[in-house]
TrEMBL record:
GO terms for molecular function: isomerase activity. It comes from the Bacteria. It comes from Flavimaricola marinus. This is Xylose isomerase-like TIM barrel. Keywords: Isomerase. Gene3D superfamilies: Divalent-metal-dependent TIM barrel enzymes (3.20.20.150).
């Protein structure tokens, strides 16, 4: 059986909207579960292990599955996070590796060592496409997956749209590069970017071309995941970050309601998944 599991991020809920109010963990978890999310990512770059342990009982009480996002600054430090993820019951660890050699030949042993730790401890890892980490650049990541075909990706394509400053419409060449990332991806993250902005408001008219581009990528990613996986859970994280990810006006107030937008993205993704199921059943 295949399931789509849609998460949000604890980081995205601190605060969750333009009010700027940071709600206590029990209220956050009740809101997230009540809105229909299946889990919540705990970002160890935006918080710490103490926060993860503090929010855990509230997640468990509300039936939310935790996903651990790690920012290891040394090769060895990932090991503790893997053990923590096993204890938390996380489906995998999303690695945003802060060990960043300059040369591909020096990057490969880092990735392979982390993958070896993952296998030894028995917790899967995925490498998120993210700025300021070992997968910072699209071209570098493509070279890494060529060298290490077993390396699995968590696709947050917003970072590469900004990183490469893609012109719209994207060329067939650039679309093909992004398709290679999606074909290597076992999970996905939801945020819409443009070539200059990491996080766009979903309903602004000028942003619609980028919204449609990302919805197409999410469909491509989910369809590819389904073709590779006859069973299991496909995880999609709606990750709309607070300022300064979220754009603000001169009063410092966010220009859109991220909590509402996260639920919009969840609806889009569930609709895409249902469409793919119908198409598969009709074949």
């Amino acid at each position: 059986m295949r399931r789509l599991q849609v998460y949000t991020s604890l980081w995205a809920m601190q605060p969750h909207d333009q009010s700027g109010v940071k709600l206590p963990h029990d209220q956050v978890c009740e809101m997230v579960a009540g809105a229909g999310f299946d889990g919540m990512a705990i970002d160890l770059g935006a918080s710490d292990v103490a926060v993860a342990h503090a929010v855990r009982p509230h997640m468990e009480r509300n039936g939310l599955t935790p996903l651990i996002v790690a920012f290891p600054k040394t090769i060895q430090s990932l090991e503790d996070t893997l053990h923590m993820a096993a204890d938390f019951g996380a489906p995998f660890v999303d690695v945003i590796g802060q060990v960043m050699p300059l040369a591909i030949d020096d990057m490969v042993p880092v990735i392979e060592t982390w993958m070896g730790m993952s296998q030894k401890i028995g917790v899967p890892i995925q490498f998120e496409t993210h700025r300021n980490c070992i997968t910072n650049d699209l071209y570098v990541t493509l070279q890494l997956i060529d060298r290490i075909p077993e390396m699995r990706i968590c696709a947050d394509l917003s970072h590469y749209v900004v990183d490469r400053e893609f012109w719209f419409p994207l060329s067939e060449h650039d679309l093909g590069l992004m398709s290679r990332i999606l074909a290597q991806s076992d999970s996905f993250q939801g945020r819409v970017a443009s070539r200059q902005q990491i996080q766009l408001q979903l309903d602004f008219p000028q942003n619609q071309k980028w919204v449609e581009l990302f919805k197409g990528w999410w469909r491509e990613g989910l369809e590819g995941w389904r073709s590779r996986n006859p069973k299991g859970d496909c995880i999609f994280v709606c990750e709309l970050g607070p300022p300064e990810y979220a754009m603000t006006g001169p009063d410092g107030r966010e220009m859109s309601n991220r909590w509402e937008e996260a639920q919009v993205i969840m609806g889009w993704v569930r609709e895409i998944w249902a469409d793919l199921e119908r198409e598969e059943a009709a074949r």
